[in-house]
Design goal:
The chain is an alpha+beta fold. It contains 2 helices and 7 strands, in the order ββββαβββα. The chain has one domain: Nucleoside Triphosphate Pyrophosphohydrolase, CATH 3.90.79.10. The strands form 2 sheets. Strands 4-1-6-5 form a 4-stranded mixed sheet, sandwiched between helices. The structure holds 8-OXO-2'-deoxyguanosine-5'-triphosphate and magnesium ion. Keywords: DNA damage, DNA repair, DNA replication, Hydrolase, Magnesium, Metal-binding, Mutator protein.
Length: 129
């Protein structure tokens, strides 16, 4: 059976209603694709807790997590990913990329111009509705 992983991603919005988009680096899996920053849920964690932890690790800032945006199951060649995306805002600090190649704040209308990781596309579509 294919490995299944549970992953959380943050749809971080600023005061101008822009969304923080993160480009995966060449050292990561799915290189050069855009994603909502986040990562794997660890044992015993609630998804919201994982997201706060992952954003602290990856972006060195604190977020406040709000509503669920999408719950997507996507089958990649080697793994099945269950991606939960949540609305979030920065509550302390400023996002700085430590693992990603870059971070960009984008207008909702600009999101479709980026090349997203496949599991993220339903979230992007939901945001554009
Ligand atoms: N974080 C995140 N991962 C995603 C998204 N879309 C998507 O397909 N993935 C995939 C890529 C990875 O195979 C998997 C987990 O992502 P990850 O590399 O961020 O995991 P992580 O932060 O826990 O990092 P690590 O411990 O494995 O180094 O989910 C997304 O929007 N955000
Ligand atoms: Mg990650």
């Amino acid at each position: 059976m294919k490995k299944q992983i549970k992953v959380v991603g943050a749809v971080i919005r600023n005061e101008q209603n822009q969304i923080l988009c993160a480009l995966r680096s060449t050292e990561m899996s799915l290189p050069n694709l855009w994603e909502f920053p986040g990562g794997k849920i660890e044992e015993g964690e609630q998804p919201e807790e994982s997201l706060v932890r992952e954003i602290q690790e990856e972006l060195d800032c604190e977020i406040k997590v709000a509503d669920l945006v999408e719950d997507v199951v996507h089958e990649y060649p080697g793994v099945i990913v269950n991606l939960l995306t949540y609305e979030a805002t920065v509550s302390s600090g400023r996002p700085v990329a430590s693992e990603h190649a870059k971070l960009e704040w984008k207008e909702i209308a600009e999101l479709k111009e980026l090349e997203w990781a496949p599991a993220d596309i339903p979230t992007v579509e939901k945001l554009m509705k």
